[in-house]
């Protein structure tokens, strides 16, 4: 798919040429969708990489208000956003050795 910034092309695993062309055609035909999406995301480029625990995702993008998020009464875990959901899953299903290795690699 075209990067859209004139810098070339990139590939997405399991996305074929036909599907990629359909996606590009959609965005070409719906410029306002593209513009609204770009305007809704604010970010700044930093020189350093931070551990996940220090990552701050804007509330609009953190998954806390997604339409498929269950109500608090129906939730089986106490996660309020996507990051907390992932961390809860990792705590339940990853081996202790894997968790230690991640902490070791991420310690700054």
What value does the Rg take, in angstroms?
A: 19 Å
Number of helix segments?
4
Strand content: under 5%
> Low-confidence parts, pLDDT < 50 over ≥5 residues?
none
- Number of spatially distinct domains: 2
Number of strands: 0
Oligomer: single chain
Distance between the termini: 36 Å
The averaged pLDDT comes out at 76
How many strands, what sense, and barrel or not for the largest sheet? none
Overall 3D form:
extended
Order of SSEs:
HHHH
Written overview of the protein:
This protein is mainly alpha-helical and 108 residues long. The chain has two domains: 1-40, no CATH class; 52-106, no CATH class. It is built from four helices and no strands. It starts with 16 loop residues before the first helix and ends with a helix. The model has no long low-confidence stretch (mean pLDDT 76).
At a glance:
By secondary structure, the chain is mainly α. It has helices at residues 17-29, 31-40, 82-93, 96-106. The chain is extended and about 50 Å long.
Task: Compile the SSE list and pairings.
Layout: H1 17-29, H2 31-40, H3 82-93, H4 96-106
Task: Sum up the structure in keywords.
single chain, 108 residues, mainly alpha, 2 domains, 4 helices, 0% strand
């Amino acid at each position: 798919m075209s990067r859209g910034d004139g810098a070339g092309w990139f590939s997405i695993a399991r996305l074929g040429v036909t599907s990629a062309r359909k996606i590009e055609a959609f965005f070409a035909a719906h410029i306002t969708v593209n513009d609204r999406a770009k305007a809704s995301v604010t970010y700044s480029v930093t020189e350093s990489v931070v551990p996940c625990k220090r990552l701050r995702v804007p509330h609009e993008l953190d998954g806390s208000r997604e339409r498929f998020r269950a109500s608090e009464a129906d939730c089986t875990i106490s996660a309020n956003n996507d990051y907390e959901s992932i961390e809860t899953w990792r705590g339940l299903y990853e081996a202790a050795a894997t968790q230690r290795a991640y902490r070791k690699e991420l310690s700054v």
